[in-house]
Design brief:
heterodimer; A: 657 residues; 2 strands; globular; B: 100 residues; mainly alpha; 3 helices
Chain lengths: 657, 100
């Protein structure tokens, strides 16, 4: 270990300790101790991450990345994997987001989970998740990253299935795990290819070797293969087409979990991984294109579904998928810093939206259907105002964080020399319109109009309202996140608006582009940036207006539109029947094939048949032979005589030769 | 001098008689006697060979066989008496409990 060690290991180790203590002994702890342990673990991790950030800024440029090598994990011949952590601009942003948002969500959970069983289990899992997520982002090689990668999958599985008595929660957990596994398969093969061709999995060494290779403009080569396989892994973890199906179902977990794992941090691991592997993607335009197309399609596709959903958490889930699509769109045009920027702002406002939704659900004693809400802004003002801020942010209203990050993505989607194209921009533009629409729809349906649910609002029943604002321990994290959601974008004001885009400059050393391949010229025309920005802002405002028109001004219209749209509406409302399609095309054949062929055919008939058959054969033969054992002395003698004759004949015949 | 073959044929005939008696007869005593007959058929061939080859070992073996036969008849007769006492029969077909 070098002299200026930051003791980075403390950052993941603290949550691990919290998880271990609460997980192993939590059953016998009082709630206060469980709370204190969990909050201390995550808070101290955040504090240590912040401290490391301060010390990081003092590092000389050649000391970055700051690598702390703790041990050799294993060594096989020339190939060795260190157990080492790496702090650079990228992982710094990630650990701050993970620990910061994570800590706030821990605090919120204390209030949200106050009446639930399995309190200690919940916090043990949450801390465990923090541990794995921090391992993932701090790792200095792909294998340690993979440990974190699988670990967050495990934590996610445990937390989705937290209410395991509910069958839907248990199967949602399984679904998440299995779908993720498909992606992990791609990640693993990419790892194997690296081991085979580079003989190492350490980031710096892999990228060093990658940088010696030419850009694969003509045809696909090794880097394209690795890139696409890594993207497969990212598709699973970050819920991109075609592997996004697990995320909406993951909403079965407690709402703070949805906020932390399925909105703010874990699902962004794929974006982080792609951004981390940027030297590979830079050298493979085809892989970049794949990333961009997947991201764009996902963003658009999920946004359309988001428009029609009625479950407040499902709207947010599809919104998350859509926003992740934006991040991949950014990565796909090699605007990695824009992707990470959006990752950060998204972590703020989406965590806030989920926590706000949790607060709404809490206020309505478990109601999640927006058709049963309405008019809540009087009852839960804190929740309303914070969610309002988050909605403005995600919709891309100027001045709020989402505006800056989304705009940077859209500008790059159009102008990036690495495959930017107006089609990406246009799809992103439409998505921005839809995003604004469905988010304001959510806001209006939930907080405006008349209350449509069944709880007493206090108006009729003499003053006492059954709808109650959440306790302070829940509203304070909301407020903090709201502040972040509003101002979080000001670290990256683009140059066009007179800013310096400090965020991008901070991350710049991480994303060093190789020289542009021959034949590509920068077609960026900065004069266009402002008009494009105006377009997307217009889209956001239009979405806001449409939502207001449909859900506040004329609430009977949506029904009529839905009826007029008929089949199209039903198609979108039923999420394009993708789950049904997967069930019909993949799941059912798999189950049928496994049952009929593998279970009944091979296992029962083949393997069991062979074993049972030989047993039955032995039994039958024995049963026949048993008859010789008659107990009759003379028959025994007869057998002996026959045997003796046989031996004699044998001797005569053999003796003659 | 009588040729060796004659003795051996006689021995074989005696042995075959013993085997046949053993297989056919049901009375334990008769079966017992058949065993003695087989033993003595073998004894006959032993001494015939001993005389033919001028070797004493064959005659020596005959003594062994006789000693064993004497011991065996002592034990065998005791068993027969025990069987007769418990089952009141000497028919071997009715002494068939030793089976599965």
């Amino acid at each position: 270990m070098n002299e200026t060690s930051f003791h980075l290991w403390l950052i993941p180790a603290l949550p691990l300790a919290g998880a271990a203590l609460n997980g192993l002994f939590g059953r016998s702890f009082s709630r206060k101790i469980v709370t204190a342990l969990a909050l201390f673990a995550s808070g101290a991790a955040f504090a240590w991450a912040a401290l490391s950030a301060f010390r990081f800024t003092a590092l000389a440029e050649d000391a970055i990345p700051h690598i702390e090598n703790y041990a050799t994990w294993f060594r096989v011949g020339d190939f060795s994997v260190p157990f080492a952590f790496q702090l650079d601009q990228l992982s710094l942003v990630m650990i701050l987001v993970v620990t910061g948002v994570g800590f706030l969500i821990h605090i919120y959970s204390v209030g949200y989970m106050a009446h639930e069983g399995g309190y200690y289990r919940y916090f043990a899992y949450l801390n465990l998740f923090m541990f794995f997520m921090l391992t993932l982002v701090l790792a200095n090689n792909y294998l340690v990253m993979f440990v974190g990668w699988e670990g967050v999958g495990l934590a996610s599985y445990l937390l989705i299935g937290f209410f395991f008595q509910r069958d839907s929660a248990a199967s949602a957990g399984k679904k998440a795990f299995i779908v993720n596994r498909i992606g992990d398969f791609g990640f693993l093969i990419a790892l194997f290819l690296m081991v085979q061709h580079f003989g190492t999995v350490t980031f710096t060494e892999v990228f060093q070797q990658v940088s010696l290779r030419p850009v694969e403009t003509a045809g696909a080569g090794l880097l394209t293969t690795i890139g696409i396989l890594l993207m497969t892994g990212a598709c699973g973890k970050s819920a991109q087409l075609p592997l996004y199906v697990w995320l909406p179902d993951a909403m079965e977990g407690p709402t703070p979990v949805s906020a932390l794992i399925h909105a703010a941090t874990m699902v962004t691991a794929g974006v982080y991984m792609v951004a981390r592997s940027n030297p590979i993607f830079f050298r493979s335009p085809s892989a970049l294109t794949v990333v961009a197309i997947i991201g764009t399609l996902t963003a658009f596709f999920a946004a359309t579904i988001g428009i029609t959903q009625t479950d407040i958490k499902r709207v947010l889930a599809y919104s998350t998928i859509s926003q992740l699509g934006y991040m991949f769109m950014a990565c796909g045009v090699a605007a990695f810093s824009a992707g990470i920027f959006h990752l950060m702002t998204h972590a703020f406002f989406k965590a806030l939206l989920f926590l706000g939704a949790g607060s709404v659900i809490h206020a309505l004693s478990g109601e999640q259907d927006m058709r049963q809400m309405g008019g809540l802004h009087k009852h839960i003002p804190w929740t309303f105002w914070t969610m309002f801020a988050a909605t403005l942010a995600i919709a891309g209203i100027p001045g709020f964080s989402g505006f800056f990050s989304k705009d940077e993505i859209l500008w790059n989607a159009y102008a990036s020399p690495w495959g930017g194209h107006w089609i990406y921009w246009f799809m992103g533009f439409l998505t921005a319109l839809m995003t604004s629409f469905y988010m304001f729809r959510l806001l209006f349906l939930t907080f405006y109009g008349k209350y449509r649910g069944t709880l007493s609002t206090g108006a009729k029943h003499g003053g006492h309202s059954q709808i109650h604002e959440s306790p302070k321990i829940m509203t304070i994290p909301l407020a903090i996140l709201a502040v972040l959601a509003v101002i979080g974008g000001y670290v990256g004001i683009p140059a066009t608006l007179g800013g310096t885009n400090r965020f991008e400059h901070f991350l710049e050393p991480m994303f060093k582009a190789p020289p542009l391949p021959a034949g590509i010229v920068e077609h960026a025309n900065h004069a266009l940036e402002l008009p494009l920005m105006a377009c997307t802002t217009g889209a956001a405002l239009l979405g806001l207006f449409l939502a207001w028109l449909l859900y506040v001004s004329r609430p009977q219209l949506p029904q009529r539109i839905a009826e007029a749209a008929g089949g199209v509406y039903r198609l979108v409302f039923n999420k394009y029947y993708i789950d049904e399609l997967y069930r019909a095309v993949l799941v059912n054949p798999l189950i049928t094939g496994s049952t009929k062929l593998l279970w009944h055919g091979i296992d029962s008939a083949g393997i069991d048949g062979a074993i049972d058959g030989s047993a039955r054969g032995a039994q039958q033969v024995s049963n026949e032979v048993r008859q010789m054992q008659s107990g009759n002395l003379r028959s025994y003698a007869g057998w002996i005589a026959i045997g003796a004759v046989a031996v004699i004949i044998f001797m005569i015949v053999m003796g003659g030769k | 001098m009588v040729p060796l073959g004659y003795y051996l044929v006689l021995s074989a005939i005696l042995f075959a008689c013993g085997v046949a008696g053993f297989l056919i007869k049901r009375n334990i005593i008769t079966i017992f006697m058949s065993i003695e007959l087989m033993l003595n058929a073998v004894n006959l061939s032993f001494v015939a060979f001993a005389a033919h080859w001028h070797m004493l070992s064959g005659q020596l073996f005959v003594f062994f066989v006789m000693v064993v036969a004497a011991a065996e008849s002592a034990v065998g007769l005791a068993i027969i008496i025990a069987v007769f006492r418990t089952r009141a029969t000497l028919d071997v077909d009715r002494v068939d409990l030793l089976k599965l």
